Amino acid sequence: MEARYQLRQCPESVSTLPDRVPLRQLPGMLIGVEQQRQIDLPDGYEFSTGTSRLDPARVHYLLSNYAYWAAKRTRQTQDAAIAHSRNYGIYWVASQQQVAYARVVTDGVTFAWLADVIVDPAHRGRGIGRALIAGVVADLEPLGLKRIVLKASDEGVHLYEQFGWHAVEKPDAWMELRSAGTVQR
After folding, report:
1. Which CATH number fits domain 5-166: 2.40.50.140, 3.40.630.30, 3.30.565.10, 3.90.170.10?
2. For every residue of 62-118, which 3-state class applies, written as one string?
3. Phi and psi for 112 in degrees, rounded to 5?
C-alpha cells in the first residue's frame, strides 16, 4: 500500500499526530497532519513509498554505478532485495524519472535496517537526500520500532546525525556472519 504524502514548506518545529503520538524533532521537515506526513521537497520532486512506481532498472543503475557497496551487485540480486524490503523513491516530476532510492529491511515491530540510500549525482545538493530520509523516518514512525540501524558512508554521517542517528553503543558487541564468497571491506 502506497503512503500518500503532501508536499509543502513546513515550519521549524514538528507537530504531533492527531492521536498525540509525538514525532521526533526533525526541524523543518515533517508534520503529522490527519495521518499524512508533510515532507519538504524542492519544487518539481515527489516522494513515494509505492513499490509499483519504482524503476528497478534505474535503481540498479544508480547503485551499481554510484555506490561502492553495490558496485558488483547483480540486477537479479537487486530485484530480490527490492521484493523483500520497504522501498522509497523520489521522482523528478518533469520526467517522472526516479532520482533517489532507499530501502528498509524490518520485522515491522522492533528492528529495521536502512540500506541502499542513493541520490542521482545530477540531483545532489538540492535537499533530495534529506527529504528521502525524512520520508523514510515518517513512514517508519508509526511502527514504534526500537532501533533503526544503518552503515553510513563518510559523506552520509552528517545527514543521518541530523535525524538522530549516532554510533551504536558497544560496537564491539555487534557481530556479523558473512557468506564464504563475500569479500570484507
Report:
1. 3.40.630.30
2. HHHHHCHHHCCCCHHHHHHHHHCCEEEEEEECCCCEEEEEEEEEECCCCEEEEEEEE
3. -145, 155
Give residue for cell 525524512.
134
Question: Could you tell me if 49 and 87 are in contact, meaning their C-beta atoms sit under 8 angstroms apart?
Answer: yes
Residue 159 CB neighbour total at 10 angstroms: 16
Q: 63, exposed or middle or buried, with CB in 10 Å at 0-12, 13-18, 19+?
A: buried
Q: How much is the pLDDT for 38?
A: 67
Q: Mind listing the pLDDT tens digit for each residue in 23-64?
A: 333 333 333 333 345 678 899 999 999 989 999 999 999 999
**Is the entire prediction scored with pTM above 0.85?**
no
Half-sphere exposure of 129 (CA within 13 A, CB side): 20
